[in-house]
Design goal:
The protein is mainly alpha-helical and 80 residues long. The chain has helices spanning 6-14, 18-34, 39-79.
């Protein structure tokens, strides 16, 4: 198996929306749980899973911030 270009893979994952990153992360976990891969393949898959999990967290943090901003604006409007 050829070594993936980590910069290309990182750029690919950075373009993923939340649902796509989550779905691919679910698939990565399933593949790791099934086993049967050699160590290098398992490590590469683990690293992809970590990158996908980080992408999901970025989306969730952004959504959390948007909700907090909306609540702050709503509270400010009520006080005015």
């Amino acid at each position: 198996m050829a070594e993936p270009d980590t910069a290309t893979e990182a750029a690919e994952i950075a373009s993923f929306g939340y649902e796509r990153a989550r779905d691919e992360l679910v698939n990565v976990v399933k593949m790791l749980e099934q086993g049967g891969m050699d160590l290098d393949e398992s490590l590469a898959l683990w690293e992809r899973g970590e990158a996908l999990a980080n992408r999901c967290e970025e989306h969730l943090a952004g959504a959390r911030q948007r909700v907090e901003n909306a609540i702050s604006r709503s509270e400010a409007a009520e006080e005015a």
